[in-house]
Amino acid sequence: MANQSIAKPCLLALEDGTVFTGQSFGAEGSTTGEFVFNTAMTGYQEILTDPSYCGQVVVMTSPLIGNYGINEEDLESSGVFAHGFVVRELARRHSNHRATKSLDTYLAEHGVIGISGLDTRALTRKLRLDGAMRGVVTTEETDPRRCVEMALAAESMQGADLVDRVAPKHATDWTDGLLSEFNRCRPVVSASNKLRVAAIDCGMKRNILRHLIDLGCEVRILPPRCTPEEILGGGYDGVFVSNGPGDPAAVHYVIDLLNHIMGKLPIFGICLGHQLLGIALGAESYKLKFGHHGGNHPVQNLLTNRVEITSQNHGFAIDTDSIKKVGATVTHVNLNDQTLEGYVHQDMPILAVQYHPEASPGPQDAAYLFDCFATMMKTGSSPSAEQMSQAQDDLKARLAHPQTSTVTA
């Protein structure tokens, strides 16, 4: 494998005046954003291509990044959306049978700046104690005081509508399912029995779409500025509301859209979709101190009393007390900080979770929620505790006894 390009001196500065020095990789120049840390040990490719990271610079807590390179199969979108990438050590060589290029080359191709060789443990500790904050990574500016000024001038995440920057403008169809080695071997669904899903794309990850196809759905991707008439008149069995970047309270057009369609079709929302549905119902959102970013967050399903290890990426949350006041039942809580991780509505077919059941990157514990969505589309009501428990049992059986082929249902 090819060696990395020659590194150049690079500065990282935060808005509180903290400055780190390191070496650049990827592109050169300057980038600003909100600095957040991610605790995943693998999956840097999926993290970089997750549109939810638009406006953010990602600090990886795992000390060695880049050792398996970049491949064409694990991309979660059409490009890199993270504004910058921070690692302790960049692997000098990558080695994996699927790799087509190095992380250094990939970031350079997409114009994204990386910095290595700094104490990411100290940086992570600062972000955890003081909270996520604005910052800059630059190969152009050498004056630390000027770098801090650049950090202070960066856009704030609070109040920012970033969905328009990452979302599609036109509707398209999606047909690709899960890659064969990750297929959970659900029975093939005949064309006459397929469920039609309208997927509102606020910055959606591709593995979500693959799971919906694997579930036996026909998926139509709709832009977030679509109309209620497009959804209600489209012959859909259900609506999916995706993840995405920024402050959910600023995405008024999606909140208005959801207000028009809630109660008329089953709706499943994750991450930003979870937040937008909560606000549309009348609940309140707030910014977390440093957010949840990683593939190892424990969540308890209160309906089944089981614990899931989950993949998460969000900086905002829905207030638990406020969601209870608008007719919702809390279904999932984060065991690290007791924040809200999921709810169903008591009167309308609505299911929402804050984390990522598609697991890219991350564990597969929560993939049963896609089956709950299918059940909800068939029954027209929110999934019950019994239905969730059965879906969890079915997932456990599929993972324990993978098959090499499927049969027509």
Question: Please, could you describe this protein's structure?
Answer:
The protein is an alpha/beta fold and 409 residues long. Mean pLDDT is 93; it is low at 404-409. It contains 12 helices and 19 strands. It has a 10-stranded mixed beta sheet with strand order 10-12-11-13-14-19-18-17-15-16, sandwiched between helices. A 7-stranded mixed beta barrel has the order 1-2-8-6-4-3-9. A two-stranded parallel sheet has the order 5-7. The protein has 2 domains: 9-152, Carbamoyl-phosphate synthase small subunit, N-terminal domain (Glucose Oxidase, domain 1); 163-400, Class I glutamine amidotransferase (GATase) domain (Rossmann fold), CATH 3.40.50. Helix 8 (252-261) packs across helix 9 (272-281) and helix 11 (368-379) packs across helix 12 (385-400).
Shape: globular
Q: How large is the count of helical segments? A: 12
Report the CATH superfamily of the largest domain: Class I glutamine amidotransferase (GATase) domain
* Head-to-tail CA distance between termini: 46 Å
If you compute it from the alpha carbons, what radius of gyration comes out, rounded to the nearest whole angstrom?
21 Å
Strand order of the largest sheet: 10-12-11-13-14-19-18-17-15-16
Largest sheet: 10 strands, mixed
Strand-pairing-aware structural class: alpha/beta
Any idea of the CATH topology of the largest domain? Rossmann fold
Runs in which pLDDT lies below 50 for 5 or more consecutive residues are 404-409
> What count of structural domains?
2
Mean pLDDT: 93
Q: Class of the largest domain, according to the CATH hierarchy?
A: Alpha Beta
Strand content: 25-35%
Annotation, overall tally of beta strands? 19
Q: What is the helical fraction, as a range of percent? A: 25-40%
